[in-house]
């Protein structure tokens, strides 16, 4: 009974041992399949990056696009054109120098209208009154030039009781918000067709945003045609009509104390570059009494495909989508054939995130195209075209494309992680991830504290600390420079220097050095652990090369692992009966060893170890040799056990003899 039980236990242990051997074989095979797959993905990644660079850089890598934006800023916003004018009525305040309401009218009637209706750009002659519908010689005015404002209602703020008796305070109008926005008509209520509707609220005008505030749709607007103007049923130069309308609006008080923002907007099209330009000049009039100018000049390629180069780019974009589909199919087959869990492969989850970015890019580009097509744009029709929506969605798509480009280049670390020379850097970052996260959290809390203190102590004195969000961004920027000691000392003779010194000590001297110290400490630990850090190895390339050689020679790549419909692994040549035979063979060998005496057992083990070492020296690689040599401590342990068994047997024999 004992012998039978012992036999079953031995067979069970042998079966477990044989399964352990099979599992080790599965790991080796799966590692080869994994490296082979990484090799294929590396080739596809390199091809994808090359095509992606062609698709994105060839259409965008042109300094003329930036020059177009700069020239429109210069013509409309940065110059007064006084050096080109013989007509004094065209001179006026630059847009960037506007500080009072009268400067708004001076800029509108002078430099802006002069830029819109310029006569000659190329001969260098003084500009004269004319209507060419072109700006700077090449840029066609798309639709009309518009000017609109947003207003607030009367009595929308509360006056303290102490000032209720002040005769000068006849009304209190709050800063702009959608809740207090005024939508009622105002003004002289004339019926002149040229500008009467400028005093009537129109809800169809689109929303817009300045650098600090969002303004809802609707407004009080006036349009100016780019060409073909008429006044009192007579054709007149457009500059004549514009001067008359602007003069009447100024004299009738179109801008008053309840006006909170004025937007001047013009859209242009540059045929040589196939780019639309949106110029928005924003003049905010907050309750503080100032006039704050800001502007936005954006370019967009709303007609994407019209030339041979554009259609070539389209073909390459389709190729990129096909490569993405092939990569997704390869992932599906790999997970199905090898029964791999997606949660065990973080880089594949990363690739799914890239797929999602591509989806968003396609969607936003389609939205921009549909917004533009919905306008039914016709350059001969002088109406307002809301190109701002199409430009906005174009910018969103380009922003997502830029994010995708960043993450695509970062994906290269997926393959660099397999390169022995580059693995040190990634392991250093992973080792330092926890301490760096805690350090960043501490630094962010300190930034919040300094931003809060800066807003309370210097928010009314220092422009970079005027609001909490701006103060937080400025404090982060101060870490790298731009913090002026004299500015803080002027804002607060006592608190200013204390704030400056405290910020420099905590954020620059302490936090930055802690950040560097954590990275250096992690790098030092990784370098100490990796004794073979300078040895070159790149398993994906080796696996791909071996598969390629086998394919060229017409050999079938051996994969002894398969998965059935029940997701159970089967190893070819090792079914259940084979495992039982293996267990019986192991048990037979154990019985043979048990019948040997201690000296024979020791000699048998030594002989087998000698054969293993000989086979190792002649067949296996250096890496496998290092793994197998770990058996040496086990041999020493067996040697001690054999000697102890021999001594025990001798002692037992002596006892029996004495008895």
From TrEMBL:
Pfam family, one: PKD_channel
GO cellular component: membrane
Domain Polycystin: from-to ranges: 96-303
Membrane topology designation: Multi-pass membrane protein
Membrane-spanning residues: 42-60, 311-329, 349-370, 391-409, 429-458, 465-483, 503-523
Top-level lineage group: Eukaryota
Record GO terms (molecular function): calcium ion binding
Subcellular location per the Swiss-Prot or TrEMBL entry: Membrane
Disulfide bonds: 157-172
UniProt-listed InterPro entries: PKD1_2_channel, PKD_2, Polycystin, Polycystin_dom
UniProt keyword DNA repair, yes or no: no
UniProt entry keywords in alphabetical sequence: Glycoprotein, Membrane, Transmembrane, Transmembrane helix
Domain Polycystin cation channel PKD1/PKD2 residues, every copy: 305-526
Protein family (similarity comment): Belongs to the polycystin family.
Protein name: Uncharacterized protein
Biological source species: Guillardia theta (strain CCMP2712) (Cryptophyte)
């Amino acid at each position: 009974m004992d012998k039978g039980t012992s036999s079953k236990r031995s067979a069970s242990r042998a079966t477990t041992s044989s399964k352990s051997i099979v599992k080790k074989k599965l790991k080796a095979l799966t590692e080869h399949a994994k490296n082979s797959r990484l090799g294929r993905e590396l080739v596809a990644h390199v091809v994808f990056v090359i095509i992606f660079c062609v698709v994105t850089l060839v259409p965008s890598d042109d300094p003329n696009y930036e020059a177009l934006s700069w020239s429109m800023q210069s013509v409309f916003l940065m110059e007064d054109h006084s050096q080109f004018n013989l007509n004094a009525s065209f001179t006026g305040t630059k847009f960037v120098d506007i500080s009072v309401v009268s400067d708004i009218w001076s800029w509108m009637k002078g430099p802006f209208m002069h830029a819109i209706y310029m006569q000659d750009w190329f001969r260098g002659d003084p500009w004269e009154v004319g209507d060419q519908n072109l700006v700077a010689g090449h840029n066609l005015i798309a639709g009309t030039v518009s000017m609109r404002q947003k207003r607030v209602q009367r009595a929308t703020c509360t006056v303290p009781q102490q000032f209720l008796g002040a005769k000068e305070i006849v009304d209190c109008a709050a800063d702009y918000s959608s809740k207090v926005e005024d939508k009622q008509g105002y003004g002289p209520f004339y019926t002149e067709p040229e500008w009467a509707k400028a005093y009537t609220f129109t809800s169809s005008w689109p929303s817009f945003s300045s650098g600090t505030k969002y303004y809802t749709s609707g407004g009080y607007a006036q349009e100016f045609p780019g060409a073909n103007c008429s006044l009192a049923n007579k054709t007149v130069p457009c500059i004549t009509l514009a001067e008359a309308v602007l003069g009447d609006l100024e004299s009738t008080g179109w801008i008053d104390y309840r006006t909170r923002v004025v937007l001047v907007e013009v859209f242009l099209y540059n045929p040589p570059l196939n780019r639309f330009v949106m110029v928005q000049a924003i003049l905010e009039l907050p309750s503080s009494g100032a006039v704050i100018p800001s502007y936005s000049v954006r370019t967009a390629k709303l007609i994407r495909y019209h030339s041979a180069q554009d259609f070539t780019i389209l073909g390459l974009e389709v190729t990129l989508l096909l490569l993405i589909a092939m990569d997704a199919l390869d992932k599906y087959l790999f997970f199905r054939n090898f029964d791999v869990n997606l949660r065990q492969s973080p880089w594949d989850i990363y690739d799914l995130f890239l797929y999602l970015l591509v989806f968003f890019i396609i969607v936003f580009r389609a939205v921009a195209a549909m917004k533009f097509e919905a306008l039914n744009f016709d350059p001969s029709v002088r109406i307002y075209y809301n190109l701002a929506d199409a430009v906005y969605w174009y910018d969103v798509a380009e922003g997502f494309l830029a994010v995708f480009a960043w993450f695509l280049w970062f994906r290269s670390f997926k393959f660099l992680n397999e390169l022995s020379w580059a693995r040190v850097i990634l392991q250093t970052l992973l080792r330092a991830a926890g301490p760096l996260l805690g350090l960043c959290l501490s630094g962010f809390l300190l930034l919040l504290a300094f931003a809060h203190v800066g807003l309370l102590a210097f928010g009314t004195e220092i422009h970079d600390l005027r609001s909490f969000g701006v103060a937080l961004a400025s404090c982060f920027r101060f870490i790298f420079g731009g913090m002026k000691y004299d500015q803080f000392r002027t804002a607060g003779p006592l608190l200013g220097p204390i704030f400056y010194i405290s910020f420099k000590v905590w954020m620059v001297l302490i936090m930055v050095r802690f950040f560097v110290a954590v990275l250096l400490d992690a790098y030092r630990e990784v370098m100490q652990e990796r004794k073979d850090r300078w040895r070159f190895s790149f398993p994906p390339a080796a696996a791909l090369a071996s598969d390629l050689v086998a394919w060229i020679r017409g050999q079938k790549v051996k994969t002894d692992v398969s998965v059935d419909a029940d997701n159970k692994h089967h190893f070819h040549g090792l079914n259940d009966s084979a495992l039982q035979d293996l267990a019986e063979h192991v048990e037979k060998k154990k019985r043979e060893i048990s019948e040997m005496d201690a000296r024979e057992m020791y000699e048998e083990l030594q002989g087998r170890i000698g054969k293993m070492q000989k086979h190792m020296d002649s067949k296996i690689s250096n890496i496998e040799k290092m793994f197998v040599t770990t058996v040496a401590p086990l041999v020493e342990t067996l040697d001690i056990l054999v000697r102890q068994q021999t001594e025990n047997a001798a002692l037992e024999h002596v006892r029996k003899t004495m008895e």
